[in-house]
Amino acid sequence: MANLPQVWRPPMGWNSWDSYGTTVNEDEVLANARFMAEHLKDAGWDTLVIDIDWYDPTARAHGYNSNAPLILDEYGRQLPDPVRFPSAADGKGFGPLAEKVHELGLKLGVHMMRGIPRIAVDKNLPVLGTEYTAKDVADLEHVCKWNPDNYGLNQKHPGAQAWYDAQLDLFASWGLDFLKVDDMQTPFHSDEIAAYHRAIAKAEAKYGRSIDLSLSPGGWVATSYVDFLRENAQMWRISDDLWDRWEDIYQQFARLARWAPFQTTGHWADADMVPFGHIGLRAERGDDRQSRLALDEQKTLLALWCMGRSPLMVGGDLPTSTDDTIALLANPALREVLAGSTNNRETVRERIFKHWWEDDSYRGEFIVWAADAADWADGTPSAHRGGHYAALFWTGSDDFEIGGNIQLQSIVGLGARNDAWTLTDLFAGAPGKPADVRIEGEGADRVITGTIPAHGALWIALDRK
């Protein structure tokens, strides 16, 4: 494992944003960590991320505060609010919390904004280890449009790199494993991304531990950036924030189809949060609720994210989420396909009409994804070695009868079309109705058929007998 890339499979974790917005506290983080360790760690879930404004003592639900009195050290670096995070008092930062999370066998990460706090610039605080000050390194022209906490950094000034170096040194000294850095990609700030990557590399070398970098938000990030992104990050968002709306999931089909060919071990295009379970407690959007996504819509999201090899970061408060939610997240197929699939691709995408000659009789899209089963990058043998995975999706609002349109050979390959194959439902045992999916026919004429529920998915593995 030591010689593998830091993120050898797409991460599986929890992020506080969907449930707590800017206001999560230490007790809530630890409650989710303990629940994850007890109920989900064995299924691959191992990371917790504290989202934005953990350094704002006036943080509130449903928005950001202008001129917030951020808690900073003498060099302008952000410190946790000790009221919400009592173990951070007396300059301890997230060190004590990280230690508790690590004792559970889990990882801890935090959210950060690009740039330098406005308060540090207003006070003209020194940049650690240099003769420069915050005013020297700030870029007042490139400021986040939606969060008022920071100015950008002028990467043409030598003190700008020193600022990020000092910030990352502090985070590494706390034992953090993961950083979600925002306002990096919309617009695409390549100089800032590269500077942050260099700072992480220095901190990793000094403290002897890896820190994974996740870039946000996504916007319309172009695949032409992929080589640069692989050089500088482990994850990068490919969309804006995703919430518990079918329309948000539907938009990700095209994005993941575009990015799937570029997924490589250690470097992942990220389709964003999994808005399952108890969300909206004190979040940016919506009221306190269990996810509004129907059970079949949740299965669609999980199958699509896994077939597209996107990271999975669930947003609901785990201890107060429904049993059905936890059962879906505990499905071993999630980690299996994320870790052990290759050649992941969309193979079919067709608009379906009740009557082909009537434009106003459109029903939805029938979409098929396929992948080959592969051993995991950590050496774990694949449960379906020599086999294949497939997901059949339906975006319409009524059930869809597949019929004989998907030949088995389109998934297993022409050279294997006459072999004997068995089908396994990867959602077997999950909440909801049993899947109606099967192989019919003989020899090369065999088809995969069944019924897909509205906004639903059939997710299967195919193995030689």
Brief overview, please?
Belongs to the glycosyl hydrolase 27 family. The protein has 465 residues and is α/β, with parallel strands linked by helices. The chain has helices spanning 17-20, 26-39, 95-103, 118-122, 134-137, 158-174, 190-207, 226-232, 246-259, 295-307, 323-329, 332-339, 409-412, and strands at residues 12-15, 47-50, 107-113, 116-117, 138-139, 150-153, 178-182, 212-215, 235-237, 268-270, 278-279, 289-290, 312-314, 341-353, 362-373, 388-394, 400-401, 421-425, 436-440, 447-452, 457-464.
Q: Average pLDDT across residues?
A: 96
* Secondary-structure class: alpha/beta
Number of domains: 2
CATH architecture of the largest domain: Alpha-Beta Barrel
Which regions have little confidence, pLDDT < 50, spanning 5+ residues?
Answer: 1-5
For the largest sheet, list the strands in their spatial order.
10-9-8-7-3-2-1-13
- Give the CATH level 1 class of the largest domain: Alpha Beta
Amino- and carboxy-terminal Cα gap: 32 Å
| Large-scale geometry | elongated
**CATH topology term of the largest domain:** TIM Barrel
- Number of extended strands: 21
Radius of gyration: 23 Å
Largest sheet: 8 strands, parallel
Note the beta-strand portion: 15-25%
CATH superfamily (homologous) name of the largest domain: Aldolase class I
Protein name: Alpha-galactosidase
Keywords: Disulfide bond, Glycosidase, Hydrolase
Pfam family, one: Melibiase_2
EC number: 3.2.1.22
